[in-house]
C-alpha cells in the first residue's frame, strides 16, 4: 500500500492513519482493493484520503482570496486542476504546460510575455513544493512535472460535473455518447485516444464549454459540421497530431475562440476564412501542409499574439502586408524557406520571440537594431542566407543565429564593419560563408554568452580571435570547427571553459594548437570539469591539443586520428601515494578512445608523463577502418580537392 502511494507524503500519512490498529489480513486486502480503485479515479475514493489531499488543495495561495474566480478557486488552484486534463502518469513538459496556462488565461496578464512565463514556472514550483506535483524528466531530457494518481483522482473529483476527462488509458475509438456531454461541462479532454471520426449525428449542447482537447488522436480524420454548432463559448480548441483533413465550417463561427492549435496536422489540406475569429490570440499551424498558403482572413486577426507557421518541408506562399495588421504579435515563428519581410517585422513593436530566415546580412542587422531599441531581451532563432535544415534541440528559450552560404563580401560596403550580435546570443553557426575577414572578430562581436559555437566549411577564416583579445567563453557547452582550410589559430585561451561538454576540431590542416594557455598563475593544469567528448580529426600540423594538462574528470569519449605530429595526449591521470609510490588511474568517466587501424604505430609512439599511463588507457581503445564523409564539392577548395575526406 505504501508502494501504491508512490512516495506521496500526504497519501502515506493518510493511509497509515486509516489502517492504524488493523491486524486482520482480509481487512488489509480489502483496504488495498479500495486504494487501487481510488487511485484510478473510482468514485469510492477514501473520504479521509480525499479530505487530506483536498486540504492541501484548499491551502493553495491562502493570502490571495480576493483573486478567486466565480467558482471560488484561485488561479493557482485552476492551474493545478488543469494538470488533470493530461493522461494518468503523464510526464508533462513544463514549457508546454506554462504556455497552456497563459493561453487559458490562468496566469494574470502582464506587460511582457516573459514575465507571464516566469509566473507560470513559479506556479509550478509552488505546486511541486506542496507535493501536489512531482518533478521529473521525459525521454528527451526536458524538465517535466507529473501528477500522482491519488492527487489526480482528487482533482477530477473536485471538477466533477464540470470536466470530462477520458485521456489516454481509456483507448476510445468513438466519441463519448451525447448524453454525457452535459450543459455544465467547461473542459473536456479526450487526448491520446484512437477516435477515428466524429459522425453527423453528434451535436453536444455544451454552451459553457471553454476548452476542448482532441489532440493526439492519431486516427481522427473527420469531424462533422454539427459537432461544434452548440459550443459557442469555446475558447480553446486543440486538434494537434490528428489526421484531420478539413476543418468543419462550424469552427469558423466560434467567435469566442482564443486558441486554435493545429500543430502536426499533416493531412490537413483545406481551411476556410478566419476573419470571424477576431478574438483569436493563438494560432498554431506548425508542420502542417496548410501553410503552403497563408489562410484567408489572417490579416483580420488583429488580437493575435502567437502565430506559428514552422515548417521545413513545403514551399510556402507568404503574401506581403499581412504582418503589418498583426501589431499585437508577441511570438512569430515563420517557416525557414520563406524570406522574412524585414520591413513588416520591424513594425511589430510588441514581439518577444521570433523564428525565421533573412535573405542577407543587412536584413539581419536591421532586425538586431530594431530589437535593441525595445529595452528588453528578444528570444530568436534566425537563419541568414540560404536555407539550412538542422534539428531543433529545444524550444524557444534561447537566441541562435545560423549564417548559411551567406555572402559577406558583397554586403561589406553597405553595412557597418562589425555585425552586431545580441549580447545574449547562445548559439552561433557559420556554414559555407564567403567573404569573412581573416579574423572572425573583425566582422562580429562574439558574445561571451555562447553555449554552442560552430564554424563549418568557411575557407576565409584564419582565426577566431586576435592574439590580444581575451574573451572568456564562460558559458560555452559545445565548440565545433570543421573543414576550414585556412584556419591557423583558433585563438582559444585556457582557463575559461567551466561548462564545455564537447570539443570537436576537424579538417583544419594549418592548426597547430587548439587551446593556448596563458597566465595560469603557476598552475600547469587546465580545468575542464564538464568535458565529455573530445574529437580531433585530420589536423596534419597539430602539435598540441592543449599546452597544459587537461583536468577533465567527466571525459567519456575521445576520437583521435589524422594528427601525425601530435606527440602527447595531455590527459590528467588521478593518482595517490601508496607506500612511497604514485598509483595512477584512468579518467574516472572514460568509456572509449577511438582510433584508426592504420595509426596503431603512431599511438604507440606517443609520449606519457608516466610509463603506466599508456597501459591504463589500453582497455578503452577501439580501432576503426577509415571513415569517409561526403563534402560539398562547391565548398572544398585549396587543400581539399576531393569530394570526400577521411573523418
Short description:
With 647 residues, this protein is α/β, with parallel strands linked by helices.
Blueprint (SSEs and pairs):
Blueprint: H1 2-5, H2 9-18, H3 25-39, H4 47-58, H5 75-82, E1 92-93, H6 94-103, H7 113-129, E2 134-137, E3 143-146, H8 149-158, E4 163-165, E5 187-189, E6 197-198, E7 211-213, E8 222-223, E9 236-238, E10 259-261, E11 282-284, E12 306-308, E13 331-333, H9 342-345, E14 353-358, H10 361-372, E15 379-385, E16 399-404, E17 425-431, E18 452-456, E19 478-482, E20 492-493, E21 502-506, E22 513-516, E23 525-527, E24 533-537, E25 544-546, E26 549-551, E27 557-561, E28 575-578, E29 581-584, E30 592-596, H11 600-604, H12 612-617, E31 621-624, E32 628-630, E33 644-646
Helix pairs in contact: 2-4, 4-8, 6-7
Amino acid at each position: 500500500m505504501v508502494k501504491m502511494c508512490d512516495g506521496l507524503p500526504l497519501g502515506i500519512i493518510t493511509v497509515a492513519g486509516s489502517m492504524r490498529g488493523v491486524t486482520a489480513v482480509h481487512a488489509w486486502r480489502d483496504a488495498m482493493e479500495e486504494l487501487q480503485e481510488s487511485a484510478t479515479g473510482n468514485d469510492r475514493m477514501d473520504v479521509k484520503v480525499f479530505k487530506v489531499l483536498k486540504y492541501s488543495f484548499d491551502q493553495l495561495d491562502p493570502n490571495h482570496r480576493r483573486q478567486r474566480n466565480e467558482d471560488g478557486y484561485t488561479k493557482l488552484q485552476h492551474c493545478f486542476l488543469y494538470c488533470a486534463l493530461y493522461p494518468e502518469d503523464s510526464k508533462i513538459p513544463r514549457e508546454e504546460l506554462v504556455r497552456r496556462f497563459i493561453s487559458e488565461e490562468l496566469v494574470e496578464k502582464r506587460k511582457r510575455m516573459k514575465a507571464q512565463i516566469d509566473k507560470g514556472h513559479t506556479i509550478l514550483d509552488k505546486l511541486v513544493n506542496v507535493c501536489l506535483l512531482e518533478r521529473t524528466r521525459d525521454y528527451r531530457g526536458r524538465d517535466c512535472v507529473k501528477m500522482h494518481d491519488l492527487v489526480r483522482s482528487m482533482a477530477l473529483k473536485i471538477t466533477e460535473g464540470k470536466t470530462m476527462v477520458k485521456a489516454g488509458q481509456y483507448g476510445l475509438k468513438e466519441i463519448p455518447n451525447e448524453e454525457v456531454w452535459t450543459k455544465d461541462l467547461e473542459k473536456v479532454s479526450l487526448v491520446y485516444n484512437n477516435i477515428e471520426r466524429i459522425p453527423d449525428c453528434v451535436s453536444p449542447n455544451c454552451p459553457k464549454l471553454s476548452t476542448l482537447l482532441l489532440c493526439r488522436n492519431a486516427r481522427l480524420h473527420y469531424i462533422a459540421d454539427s459537432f461544434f454548432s452548440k459550443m459557442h463559448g469555446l475558447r480553446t480548441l486543440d486538434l494537434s497530431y490528428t489526421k484531420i483533413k478539413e476543418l468543419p465550417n462550424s469552427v469558423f463561427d466560434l467567435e469566442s475562440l482564443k486558441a486554435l492549435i493545429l500543430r502536426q496536422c499533416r493531412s490537413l489540406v483545406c481551411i476556410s476564412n478566419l476573419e470571424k475569429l477576431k478574438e483569436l490570440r493563438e494560432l498554431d499551424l506548425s508542420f502542417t501542409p496548410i501553410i503552403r498558403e497563408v489562410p484567408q482572413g489572417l490579416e483580420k486577426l488583429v488580437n493575435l499574439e502567437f502565430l506559428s507557421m514552422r515548417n521545413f518541408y513545403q514551399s510556402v506562399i507568404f503574401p506581403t502586408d499581412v504582418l503589418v495588421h498583426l501589431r499585437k504579435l508577441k511570438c512569430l515563428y515563420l517557416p525557414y524557406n520563406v524570406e522574412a519581410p524585414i520591413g513588416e517585422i520591424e513594425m511589430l513593436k510588441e514581439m518577444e520571440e521570433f523564428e525565421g530566415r533573412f535573405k542577407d546580412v543587412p536584413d539581419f542587422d536591421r532586425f538586431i537594431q530594431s530589437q535593441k531599441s525595445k529595452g528588453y531581451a528578444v528570444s530568436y532563432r534566425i537563419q541568414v542566407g540560404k536555407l539550412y535544415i538542422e534539428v531543433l534541440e529545444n524550444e524557444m528559450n534561447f537566441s541562435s543565429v545560423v549564417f548559411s552560404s551567406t555572402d559577406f563580401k558583397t554586403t561589406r560596403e553597405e553595412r557597418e564593419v562589425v555585425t552586431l550580435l545580441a549580447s545574449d546570443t547562445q548559439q552561433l553557426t557559420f556554414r559555407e560563408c564567403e567573404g569573412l575577414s581573416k579574423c572572425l572578430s573583425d566582422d562580429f562581436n562574439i558574445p561571451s554568452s555562447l553555449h554552442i559555437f560552430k564554424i563549418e566549411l568557411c575557407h576565409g577564416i584564419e582565426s577566431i580571435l586576435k592574439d590580444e583579445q581575451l574573451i572568456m567563453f564562460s558559458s560555452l557547452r559545445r565548440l565545433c570547427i570543421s573543414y576550414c582550410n585556412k584556419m591557423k589559430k583558433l585563438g582559444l585561451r585556457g582557463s575559461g571553459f567551466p561548462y564545455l561538454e564537447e570539443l570537436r576540431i576537424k579538417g583544419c590542416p594549418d592548426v597547430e594548437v587548439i587551446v593556448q594557455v596563458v597566465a595560469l598563475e603557476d598552475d600547469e593544469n587546465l580545468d575542464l570539469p564538464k568535458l565529455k567528448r573530445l574529437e580531433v580529426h585530420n589536423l596534419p600540423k597539430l602539435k598540441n591539443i592543449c599546452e597544459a594538462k587537461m583536468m577533465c574528470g567527466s571525459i567519456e569519449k575521445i576520437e583521435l586520428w589524422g594528427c601525425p605530429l601530435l606527440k602527447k595526449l595531455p590527459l590528467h591521470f588521478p593518482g595517490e601515494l601508496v607506500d612511497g609510490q604514485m598509483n595512477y588511474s584512468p579518467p574516472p568517466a572514460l568509456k572509449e578512445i577511438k582510433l584508426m587501424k592504420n595509426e596503431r604505430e603512431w599511438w604507440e609512439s606517443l609520449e606519457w608523463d608516466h610509463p603506466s599511463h599508456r597501459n591504463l588507457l589500453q582497455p578503452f581503445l577501439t580501432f576503426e577502418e577509415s571513415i569517409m564523409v561526403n563534402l560539398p564539392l562547391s565548398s572544398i577548395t585549396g587543400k581539399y580537392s576531393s569530394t570526400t575526406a577521411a573523418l
